[in-house]
Write a structure and sequence with these properties.
The structure holds two protein chains of two kinds. Chain A is mainly β. Helices cover 9% and strands 27% of the residues of chain A. Mean pLDDT of chain A is 77; it is low at 1-35, 133-156 and 404-416. In chain B, strand 3 (52-57) and strand 4 form a beta hairpin. The chains are: A mainly beta, B mainly beta. Chains A and B meet through strand 4, strand 13 and helix 5 of A and helix 3 and strand 11 of B.
Chain lengths: 433, 369
Amino acid sequence: MGQRWLRRLLGSAVGVALLGAPLSAPGREPPGPPEAGVQVRLDPRRGEIVVEGLDPWALEAVQGDHAGPVRWSTWCAILVASADPDLAAADALPMSGSYQAEGATIRFQSKYPLDQPAYEIVLDRALLRAPAALCRPGGETPGREGQNIQETAATGSSRACGEPPLRLRVTAGGAAFPPPSDLPRVTAIFPSGRVLPENLLRFYLHFSVPMSRGFAYRQIHLLDSDGSPIADPFLELDEELWTADGRRLTLLFDPGRIKRGLRPRAEAGPILEAGRRYTLVVEPSWPDAWGRQLDREFRHSFQAGPADEQSPDPTRWAIEVPRAETREKLVVRFPEPLDHALALRLIGVTDVEGRLVAGQAILSDEETRWSFEPEATWTAGDQRLVVGTDLEDLAGNSVGRPFEVDLLEPITGRIRPEQTLVRFRILDPEAKR
Amino acid sequence: MPRNWSCNVALAVGMVAVLASSTLADEPSASFKQGNPQWMSVGPLGFGPDGILFVGDPRGAALIAIDTGDRAPATEKRPLEVNDLTSKLAAMMGTRPQQIMIHDLAVHPLSGNVYLSVSRGRGPEAIPALVRLTADGAVEELPLDNLRFARVELPNPPDPNTVERGQALRNESITDIAYADGRVFVAGLSNEEFSSRLIAIPFPFSEDFDGAAIEIYHGAHGRFETRSPIRTFVPYPIADQLHLLAAYTCTPLVKVPVSELKAGAHVRGTTIAELGNRNRPLDMITYTKDGKDFLLLANSNRGVMRIPVEGAAEASGITEPVEGTRGLQYETIEELKGVVQLDKLDEHRAVILVQDDTGAMNVKTIELP
């Protein structure tokens, strides 16, 4: 590292004293305070962070004095900003990416998506237009020609003097930031019933906003009636089961402790036992995608009932047929609650010509009532309720097969149709008269 | 990741192999291409000859050999310590520590550098990365889009859209890999009815390789299993014949002679131990201490298990239901808690990846117990 140019720089004209405090330079707003002379822009779509308003002479000198490629991250490190600005880790590693310096600008092309709410730019003061001015008046500049001029990480001391580097913040633009005004909270849990079969297979937790991944198994507890936690009730998957929008988590009970005859159940016992009460607790410290905590703890109490080992049978469903020429709801009542997500995905209606009817389905009455409002009016004639055979009840028994069938043994010689059809007739209003 | 061309194997196959591997030192990567192997994921790791790193890509159902360019032998392998590795990786990859998954760890047999397969993200959009830790504390990423590589695709992998009880079966197309005796052994699932399988791929790669469906008797579950994949395995010579010692969830330990791995074969492994329920094996290595061979098995439920393997040759196999444990006995190394990955640094030491109570992942070097 050359010292010649630094000496020149440090001996150069003294400008206006600048603030050393972190500056905020929001992505889509006018650039940061002019007194710093430095502007930071963030472009998540291009994966770029651009630092402008640096000293072109200094940038050129850094490149000119290097025989090999410049380790720009030691001059201008890009870090993920901590949610707590006071927690800026002094030893944080800079983000991977490539740098380009031209004129008064450094362009950082991130190797990974810029999907965090905010970034911190740690800038060596030697790159500023008036580095000498940034040192405290009358302050020591120890090691100006000594160890501080060596290539230390930018997170240490500036090379220009013993002062800490300038730290700037930039926040993400676009959809990722600012966070929605909705506070993060649990908006629903399914199944919603107060009595659930002891061989319950899964819960769905719905959130008001996208959540952080990687917290589910630490933030959710299942308590027994004494309030003591049940050990390892859930299947802990490396990839937590989230919907693409990050707002619904699927929580599977450990199947080894549900199925009869498997050793985990024999040794550790079933998770739920009929007749007992349980409470599912979601701790409020679960961060959303922006690092904000849930607004309150969530609790859902229920009682375990007898195991359900019967496959749902669509022929036993009660259908309330709407009238022709109306947009009345088609209502289907099930004798037992069905899986919330699957029921909404796998039940549909086809019209007299076999085309899928467009409309909106909702599930209510503790997931025992499915109602469907068509976009257009019903036409008279034979219609069909189309039920995917993967549709399951709360215990994972599907229309196609009960859960207790041994999945580990090969299933041979069984061909199952992918759909079950239930026919119903909408009467012709003319004929009725 | 267990190191598999250990001296056990070299001794077993005799001096011929040792000479062959040294005279072919420049050969293995001769046919490699420069560029981007089109990764879909990174998973199990294993070193082969001459600093070649084998990387399983479970989502891509492919095995990729890369030239690490790291082949200078270390005169003395230095112990490696990295605290809170996930936070460091998260910082480099521009994300939060909770978004970092470390899939496997392998020690470079020549340089002693440590290689890790890592995902940034926990969902289908996760970005794969390979990371090198050096003894001087550097954490470096390998350029996945531009390296010297060879790639081979596995036949009949599980459909990418098949999900069974929350697990995408495709992610289990490769559960572990190991190199021994000129071949890379790959454990995982196929799309076939008897889906647990072992494949033996010659290296340098050829399209013509052997694979067999693997069936085992699972004493703790009281039945034969053909659909549960091997979780971790090591090559190990028994009576001068190369075998694979393989561990399954809940935790049968099985021996399989590699000579039986023929294309289209259906092989029944011999269950030589039941190591207890509610337990998932994570990684294992073999080593010799005081003249005895041991298997060291990291697992999800208790401290690392140390299993003397001298009885493996005679073990006749468990074929009836088992309560608790049976077969080869183990001792639990209590002080090695939270170990999720391990590999040998040399004949006396291992590098381990340990998760502490706060969830942080630390890399440590230990004396082999």
